[in-house]
């Protein structure tokens, strides 16, 4: 390269920068004139702490279609030192999900009843119905600070629905798609809300009673994944049959062919014990349900989540025959060296409806 060529190139290079700098100066001058901005308008006194509310709320569209997020933060609440922090998570489809004319307020009463510092508990709720999402967020906004002891409440609107009526949700042919959707929503809620909490407690929206000392006992046990025995109402039978240890029925050759063609196979027990049939304070399980489910934070963070398909016996192109959602969670956890446990004597109550 000759000196003349270098000089010409260098001059063109500098000229481009001069033009860009001029355009930038024009842009910012126009912007500040348009905003009627003057340096004298800025007063340090405007930023006195007294001018800020201690609690704050934020509502914003999510990056995903039909999704919104609402966050309530109260920085005046500080966790108790030496106690674990817990993220309590719940899915709610719509107003009916609380059951028996209950509302988000009744759900809060259950959480507030725990013998555990509320300042160490954050809440996360995912609603699949915009009307219910608005009802929840409106309730939080009007709640006096002295009645809201939680450092953070995160509410998510995620409008996904399997199209299954509540009365039909237990039908055999509905279980695959229903539980796949539940797994997807649980995982979305988990990955969106979990920050630095030590543990996660999952609670079904239609739980009506949970022992006050349960959360503390779960934490103190040091165990990885724990569920309780759950019955229907105060006098009903035990209902959480997704929590078990033992052997399940495997499909025969004909049933396997149906599965591989996209047909339905209903997983069912062969020789199992359910949580309420165990004897010890903590009995080991092969699978857990999600009515009341405790998971140590690091277990979730290492990839133990809710499986979105039947993972037992699955091929690359077809479903397996067992192990979806919470049942698949224990299957994955086992390969990482974690164990699942049931508490047969800590009985929680689910709505009868």
Structure description:
The longest helix is centred in the N-terminal third of the chain and has 32 residues, at 3-34. The protein folds into 2 domains: 3-41; 53-350, Spore Coat Polysaccharide Biosynthesis Protein SpsA, Chain A. It is α/β, with parallel strands linked by helices. The protein is globular and about 60 Å long. 29% of the residues lie in helices and 23% in strands. It has 8 helices and 13 strands. The strands form 2 sheets. Strands 1, 2, 3, 4, 5, 6, 7, 8, 11, 12 and 13 form an 11-stranded mixed sheet that branches. 35% of the residues are buried. InterPro entries: Mannan_Polymerase_Subunit, Nucleotide-diphossugar_trans. Keywords: Membrane, Transmembrane, Transmembrane helix. Belongs to the ANP1/MMN9/VAN1 family. The chain crosses the membrane at residues 12-32. This is Glycosyltransferase family 62 protein.
Features:
Nucleotide-diphossugar_trans; eleven-stranded mixed sheet; transmembrane; two-stranded antiparallel ribbon; transmembrane helix; 353 residues; Glycosyltransferase family 62 protein; Mannan_Polymerase_Subunit
């Amino acid at each position: 390269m000759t000196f003349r060529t270098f000089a010409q190139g260098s001059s063109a290079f500098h000229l481009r920068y001069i033009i860009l700098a001029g355009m930038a100066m024009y842009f910012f001058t126009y912007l500040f004139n348009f905003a009627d901005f003057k340096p004298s308008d800025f007063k340090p006194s405007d930023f006195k702490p007294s001018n800020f509310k201690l609690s704050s709320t934020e509502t914003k569209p999510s990056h995903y279609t039909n999704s919104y997020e609402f966050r309530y933060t109260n920085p005046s609440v500080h966790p108790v030192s030496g106690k674990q922090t817990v993220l309590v998570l719940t899915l709610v489809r719509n107003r009916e999900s609380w059951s028996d004319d209950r509302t988000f307020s009744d759900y809060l009463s259950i959480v507030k009843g725990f013998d555990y510092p509320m300042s160490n508990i954050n809440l996360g709720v995912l609603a699949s119905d915009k009307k219910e999402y608005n009802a929840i967020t409106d309730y939080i906004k009007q709640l006096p600070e002295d009645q809201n002891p939680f450092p953070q409440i995160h509410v998510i609107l995620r409008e996904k629905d399997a199209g299954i009526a509540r009365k039909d949700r237990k039908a055999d042919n509905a279980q695959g798609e229903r539980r796949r959707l539940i797994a997807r929503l649980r995982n979305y809620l988990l990955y969106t809300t979990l920050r630095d909490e030590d543990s996660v407690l999952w609670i079904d929206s239609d739980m009506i009673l949970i022992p006050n000392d349960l959360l503390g006992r779960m934490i103190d046990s040091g165990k990885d994944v724990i569920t309780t025995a759950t019955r229907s109402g105060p006098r009903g039978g035990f209902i959480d049959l997704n929590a078990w240890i033992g052997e399940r029925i495997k499909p025969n050759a004909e049933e396997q062919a149906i599965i591989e063609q996209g047909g339905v196979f209903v997983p069912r027990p062969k020789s199992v014990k359910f949580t309420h049939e165990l004897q010890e304070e903590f009995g080991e399980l092969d699978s857990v349900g999600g009515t009341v489910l405790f998971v140590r934070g690091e277990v979730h963070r290492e990839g133990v989540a809710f499986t979105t398909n039947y993972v037992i016996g699955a091929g690359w192109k077809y479903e397996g025959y067992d192990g979806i959602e919470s049942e698949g969670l224990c299957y994955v956890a086992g390969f990482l060296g974690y164990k699942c446990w049931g508490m047969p004597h800590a009985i929680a109550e689910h709505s009868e409806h």
